[in-house]
Amino acid sequence: MRALALAGAVAGAGCQAERPKPAPTKVAAEPEQPIPEPAPEPAPEPKPARARFDVHVHLVSDAVDPLLATLDRAGIQRAVVLASPHLDPAHLPDQSERFADWRGANDRLLELSAGHRDRLVPFITADPAEARPEELRAWFDAGACGVKLYMGHRSFHARPLADEAHRPMFSTLERERVPVLLHINTFRFEAELGELLASYPELNLLCPHFCGSRTDVERLERILAAHPGLLVDTSHGPGKPGVQGFTALELERERVRALILAEPERFLFGSDLVTSMVEQREDIARFEWDRQVQANLGLLEADRFEFNRLVGEHGVMEWSEYRGLALDDATLGPVLAGNAERWLASCLDE
C-alpha cells in the first residue's frame, strides 16, 4: 500500500510538473531609492550639573575644536592642556629623539590655546637640563600656567630627578610656585621622588596616575604619608597601563575610597586624554575619546562604569563593567574641580 501511495504521489508530481507555467507578470521598475544614512549614535546621558576640571589632557594633532566638543559632551568646563612633542602625529620631529622638538611644541600649544584661555590652561614642557630660566619666563609671560615634565618616565629618564643639571629649572619653579605635573614611574624611581622633594620642598607638584601607583595601593599610601604636600591625579589612559589601573583599583576599591575620603584635597580628576586623530577620522576619535573621558569620570562619580578589560589567558581586550568609587557630593566637589582651581589659582582668570 505504501509503495502504491508513493507511486501515486510521484505520478501526481510528474503530472503537475508537465503543466505549462503561466507567463511571468511584468512589474514596472521602481525608481532607485537612496541608501539611508546610518542612525546617529545616541548622545551620552547628560552629567549632573557640577563643576569639572580635567587636569591631564595631551593636546596634539592641533585638535582644539574636537577637544572642546568632547569636554562639552562630558560636562567639563576646563582642562589643563599639555605640550606633548612625543605624542603628536601632526608634528613628529625628523630626529630619532622623540622629545627633540619640545620648544616648538610649547610655541604651538600656546598659539592653539590662545583663543580659549577661559577653558584651556596650557602647560609647557622642557628638558630640565636644557631649559633656561629666562625662556621659561618668556613662556609664562605668553600665557603658560605650568610645566609638564616627562623625565620620570623610563623612556625619558636621562638623569636622576634631582640631578644638579636640573637645579636652575627646579629652583625657578619652586621660587615662583609654578604648578608642575611630573610623570614618574614610582615603581622604579620612588626614592628619586623623595630626593627631589627633599631638595625642593616648596615645589608645587602634582604626580599623575595616582602617583604611578594604581597597581600598588600600598606604595601610594606610603608616598602620600611621606610627602604630605604632594598632590596626585586620578587619570587613566586608553592602553594596557590604564586598563591594569582600573582593574587593580577595583580590587582595592574600599581602600582607595578610604584614602580619598581621608584627604580629598590631595586628589584631582584627570583623563589622560591624547587628542590624536586616527587617519583624520574625527568620528572615530570622538567615539574613543568619549569612552575614555566617561570612564575616568565614572571611576569617581559612579557605582558602575564601563571600559576595556584584559580577559583570558592571552589578555584579550574586552569591553566590560567595573565598580566605581561612587564618591559623595561633598568629596566630588574638590576632587572634580575645587582642588584644580586651588592648585592653579596663580594663573587662572577669574
From TrEMBL:
SUPFAM superfamilies: Metallo-dependent hydrolases. Residues 1-48 are annotated as: Disordered. Residues 54-344 form the Amidohydrolase-related domain. Keywords: Hydrolase, Lyase. It comes from the Bacteria. Residues 1-14 have a biased composition (Low complexity). One of its GO terms (biological process) is secondary metabolic process. Pfam families: Amidohydro_2. One of its GO terms (molecular function) is carboxy-lyase activity. GO terms for cellular component: cytoplasm. Residues 33-46 have a biased composition (Pro residues). This is Amidohydrolase 2.
